[in-house]
Amino acid sequence: xxxxxxxxxxxxxxxxxxxxxxxxxxxxxxxxxxxxxxxxxxxxxxxxxxxxxxxxxxxxxxxxxxxxxxxxxxxxxxxxxxxxxxxxxxxxxxxxxxxxxxxxxxxxxxxxxxxxxxxxxxxxxxxxxxxxxxxxxxxxxxxxxxxxxxxxxxxxxxxxxxxxxxxxxxxxxxxxxxxxxxxxxxxxxxxxxxxxxxxxxxxxxxxxxxxxxxxxxxxxxxxxxxxxxxxxxxxxxxxxxxxxxxxxxxxxxxxxxxxxxxxxxxxxxxxxxxxxxxxxxxxxxxxxxxxxxxxxxxxxxxxxxxxxxxxxxxxxxxxxxxxxxxxxxxxxxxxxxxxxxxxxxxxxxxxxxxxxxxxxxxxxxxxxxxxxxxxxxxxxxxxxxxxxxxxxx
Amino acid sequence: xxxxxxxxxxxxxxxxxxxxxxxxxxxxxxxxxxxxxxxxxxxxxxxxxxxxxxxxxxxxxxxxxxxxxxxxxxxxxxxxxxxxxxxxxxxxxxxxxxxxxxxxxxxxxxxxxxxxxxxxxxxxxxxxxxxxxxxxxxxxxxxxxxxxxxxxxxxxxxxxxxxxxxxxxxxxxxxxxxxxxxxxxxxxxxxxxxxxxxxxxxxxxxxxxxxxxxxxxxxxxxxxx
Amino acid sequence: xxxxxxxxxxxxxxxxxxxxxxxxxxxxxxxxxxxxxxxxxxxxxxxxxxxxxxxxxxxxxxxxxxxxxxxxxxxxxxxxxxxxxxxxxxxxxxxxxxxxxxxxxxxxxxxxxxxxxxxxxxxxxxxxxxxxxxxxxxxxxxxxxxxxxxxxxxxxxxxxxxxxxxxxxxxxxxxxxxxxxxxxxxxxxxxxxxxxxxxxxxxxxxxxxxxxxxxxxxxxxxxxxxxxxxxxxxxxxxxxxxxxxxxxxxxxxxxxxxxxxxxxxxxxxxxxxxxxxxxxxxxxxxxxxxxxxxxxxxx
Lengths: 393, 225, 299
Description:
Structural class of chain B: alpha/beta
Oligomer: heterotrimer
CATH class of chain B: Alpha Beta
Structural class of chain A: alpha+beta
Radius of gyration of chain B: 17 Å
Mean pLDDT of chain B: 85
Largest sheet of chain A: 7 strands, mixed
Largest sheet of chain B: 5 strands, antiparallel
Mean pLDDT of chain A: 86
Number of strands of chain B: 10
């Protein structure tokens, strides 16, 4: 038997190029549909997991999918907004507590999520370094943000302007990094968390500036009209909140009318959740409440449909590949007719001849199967991360 | 210790071919050429002697063993162990080098273990046949004459009692033909093997001890379909 | 046996906390933080066995001027409830990150009764309208009717947070409201005796007291522990010229020299402390002392 394996091995060595091509093709045909299914299933599981962990979301009327994607994954182009007083409305029902989210802005491609301290507890996010946000102008980074921007506690992260040509619009705010989160393997890893009031400062709803009563501000004062001081446009507005200037930061107007992208209601129990949904669907037309898992499940149905079409395509290609591989094997057998004849005349037994002939197909199938198994395991372990890396880069 | 062909009769019914041979005895060390026109049954005779075919009548006896009475498996094993086969087209495996082609028959024989001693013997045979330095060379890099010598080495490795050669020099140039044949004949005489060679080349007949004209010898019944 | 006793002692002593610089009362898994001493007192009266009630402001520091540091902010984040005074009392609220649902604005339900501060500096710049950084007078508890509203807000928040103890909370609320009601009546009786007097207040922290007890007066900006300037003395002399029976109400005991000069000016003084910060007495005791002092100055 060893001699036969030796002869088989010599055959494989001599025809390695052809066999490698066959192995590559067959491995691809086996692995690709499994990999796609695995990645899609894992992605779906992650999406659903995120949705299941956030059963309800409240937002402005509009596309439920837009609201779900924005509030769960912070991916949205132009989020419609609620007003901040909706939090009180949620609390007033007695059915749930409310966590605000405002994710309009970003910092170098990473969403800035304005929220309150409950969000990190709700998501069970833990700190690798530092502490939670305590003050206006502080930021906590998701693990991926810290790694990509090479930032640590004590560094600064700057918000990106929405429009580089609109100098009177949203302008960059320099925020102090006070904490870095541990990897959560969720969209939270790619986010910059700030207090929601900091988001409002970025938007310009709040600001800090030099004291106009101070003598040093004389150059910025246009006139004094009774007890009102009218300042000119040169008044310095701070784009960084420091211990020295934080007291000067203030907000105009009524908080309750300030914008919020979404609210996560944390229902006290299932019954309260149902009552909350009923309350919002029947009594409140100016907001929408959605069940995240349903919206995401509908999205996944579409993804699965697309996946199935891809499977059909791959299956067709796979069948064609198998037919071609079979043709190659049959041609190879035909080419080895003389070899079989020689072996038989020398005195080899039929099973010895069969074994040698089967070398080619069995080695290809065996190696393809092994490679496929390894690739499937690797895909299940690393597929999502590699895909995300490819997409992000 | 001889090869005896006793009143062999054989036919391919669907091809309308049949022949019968009277008794022939070939002694050890005797080199016999088998000649005859195409279709006269030369290769068939070799196959009958090798045990690949079974005669309808008669026996093939080698060293007292009636090969015709053995079953297919036993005849195959006997051929593998005690006979060497040389083919017109050499029938070497192109994915093996000289070494592995020479050792091929040994690897197929379960009685034989390919060990250092056998490999040394194979190397010596290869050297004796003028292939020194080509031990690990791929077959495809050798000339026709070199390949035929490799085929001869393969046939001789297991020290067969009977060497069957079917047009062994058919694809060689005149110089190589004679060279290969002379080496084969010399080896057989030295080792007292029986050499049975089918050949069309009458220029080589003087090399042999005996020439059997199968057409003249056999009652060849050919029917035209 | 001795080992067991020692262990019991250790356990018992671990179950009671010494008062630290941050006032705490009772140990529980939950924590309620109040931003000033009156609210701390009200909350303690209502929830003494439900949670640890904490006043983060160190003793002797005016809570209106206090700003929490980062560690204190993180503690506020962890608290189950944060009892706020409202009316812009805690100016640091705009700068810290807290969960809105835990913040109990005790004057939210009586916002219409808050007294806006006048003569504040406003400013405008750019396209925004005129706006000011002022707000409302914040010593709301000095109006004991408003204080009762604050107690109601605290009790409501406690009952929502610990619904299983709602009955006990309501009972305690009733008792506390009765106490405050009695204090309110006592203040009224005492202040009635001051009718017709010219009243000055050392600091503009008595707006709600003035309104509630119909004791209007002129607010100075004198610090009890500082010598008033000659300009300030001059201003007072102009104010009290041709006036008799002048009473100057202080938020804390003034310097002896100040007292003497006031005596020479025939200006009577009385200390009515807002008791915003913790002193040696409970807030209720301070109110009783205030009433006693009013009584003494009236007789």
